[in-house]
Amino acid sequence: MTSEVMDSGCSFSDTASAAITARKAAKMKRSVFSQWFVVLCLFSAFVWWVSGSIREASAMGKGKSAPASDSTDVDAIKQLGQDMGNAMVAGDIDKLNQIYADDWATVASSGKIVTKQNLLGDFKSFHDKLEWFENGPIDVQVYGDVAVANGIVKEKRIRDGKDTSGEFVYMDLLKKRAGKWVVVRSAGARVE
C-alpha cells in the first residue's frame, strides 16, 4: 500500500516525506551532539591524564623520585629474565612452562598472535632454538602485583632453519600469581 501511495503522485506522499525528513534531521542533530559530547569527554579525560603526568614529571625534576620498587621483586624479575634465557638454551620446557603464564601472548612481527602453547610447541619441536644469549641492562618497574621489565638482549637463534640472530629490545609485562612472578605479555623488536 505504501508504494502505491508514493507512486500515485498524491500530495500526501510529499507531506509525509517532509515529516520524515524533519524527524531524520532532528535525530541527526541529536546524534551529532552525542558524538561531540563523547569527544569532549574523551578529550577532557586525556587532558586530565596528561596534566597528572606533567605534575609527576615536574615533581621528579625537583628532586622527588618515582615510587620506589621493592628491590626483592626487582631482583626476582631480573633473575626470571636470566632463567628464561637459560631455559630456552637448554630446551627446558618445564621451566618455560613455569615462567610464562597460561594466558601469555604476544604479537609476532608477522602480525600473528603467539600463545604460550605456540611458544612451547616451537621449542619442543626444535622449530625455535636459542643457542646463546646475553642480557643487557634491564629496567624493572613494580606496581604492586604487576611489573614491567624492559631491556636489551643479544642472541644467536635458529628459527625454522634460518639464522635470526641479532640484538633485540623487549618489554615483558609480569604479574605476581600465587607468590611467583610470571610473564603475561611480551613485545620485542630487532635493533637495526
Task: Explain how this protein is built.
Mean pLDDT is 78; it is low at 1-10, 38-47 and 62-66. The N and C termini lie far apart (70 Å). Helix 3 packs antiparallel against helix 4. The chain has helices spanning 2-7, 11-61, 71-90, 93-99, 116-124; strands at residues 100-107, 113-115, 128-143, 146-159, 162-163, 166-177, 180-190. The radius of gyration is 28 Å and the shape is elongated. The chain has 192 residues and is α+β, with helices and mostly antiparallel strands. Strand 6 (166-177) and strand 7 form a beta hairpin. It has 5 helices and 7 strands. It has 2 domains: 2-61; 71-190, Nuclear Transport Factor 2, Chain: A. Strands 1, 2, 3, 4, 5, 6 and 7 form a 7-stranded mixed β-sheet that branches. 48% of the residues lie in helices and 34% in strands.
Low-confidence stretches: 1-10, 38-47, 62-66
Summed up, the domain count is 2
CATH class of the largest domain: Alpha Beta
Question: How large is the share of residues in beta strands?
Answer: 25-35%
Number of strands: 7
Strand/helix succession? HHHHEEHEEEEE
Average pLDDT metric? 78
Helix content: 40-55%
The main β sheet shows up as:
7 strands, mixed
Indicate the structural class: alpha+beta
CATH topology of the largest domain: Nuclear Transport Factor 2, Chain: A
Shape: elongated
The number of helical runs is 5
Known CATH architecture of the largest domain: Roll
- From the N-terminal CA to the C-terminal CA, the straight-line distance is 70 Å
Radius of gyration in whole Å, from Cα? 28 Å
